[in-house]
Amino acid sequence: MRLTHIAAFAAVAVLAACQDSPTTLQSAKGTQPDLSIVKVYKPAEYAAHGIADPTVHNSDGPRMVIDGPCYPDDPTSCGGSDPGGTYTPPRASLDYFTSNTHTNNGVTKTSQMWTYSQAHTNMESMVLRVSYQTVGAQDWKGCGATPSQFDSDYMVAFGSPQELDASRTASYPSSAAFVWRISVQHTFTANYGYTVDGTNRSHTFGSSNTTCW
Predict the structure, then answer these.
(1) How many CA atoms lie within 13 A of 11 on its CB side?
(2) Which of these, 51, 79, 96, lies nearest to 187 by C-alpha position?
(3) Which phi and psi angles does 71 have, rounded to 5°?
């Protein structure tokens, strides 16, 4: 079941500007291929241009177990009877994943960079920071060229269950080739008495995908 970005019990702030028309990328003079041949669409523009939302809700990322809370001042709440025993707080439940879906019909190529963060249970907040990067792949460096950022997203959600999705879809002639990179930071902060990684209540997980297409 898809989680909405804004639920009645959780506030979501999406600090990304929406545009009414696709973005045309610009490149430095002499750069091949010319980035002006690329159209980049944001999620708000997908429906108007017949672009399907990426399927980002499979649990392909780390899945944290659900358990009862532990408290540092009460070790017995962790399942032990010895007040001096090992403190092992349970983990909150979360997922995250990043990928690229691309197509080529012989006339037009598409490259869809996408990512998500999911807070299933026992989560106070999560932050999604996304960097979208590209560079032409037809000079002497080819697929080894280093991409640079052309857009970004910053999103915040509070409570659980909750989900944050982010993506960009690029469209350009099949004769061209580009390196597309999406670099993401998924920050999760669990409720008091839980951890997100077995040790820390708050932690930032990194994920990325680089596709030459």
Answers:
(1) 2
(2) 96
(3) -130, 130
Residue with token string 């545009």: 19
* Higher local confidence (pLDDT), 54 or 146: 146
**97 touches 113 (CB < 8 A):** no
Q: Summarize the confidence of residues 69-91 as an average pLDDT.
A: 61
C-alpha to C-alpha distances, 32 to 45, 71, 174, 178, 179, nearest whole angstrom: 27, 58, 14, 10, 12
| Residue 33's pLDDT band (cuts 50, 70, 90) | low
pTM above 0.90, yes or no: no
Nearest CA among 146, 126, 127, 144 for reference residue 135: 146
Helix then strand count (H, E) for the chain reads 0, 10
What is the distance between the alpha carbons of residues 80 and 78, in angstroms, rounded to a whole number? 6
Residue given tokens 């002499």 in the structure block = 30
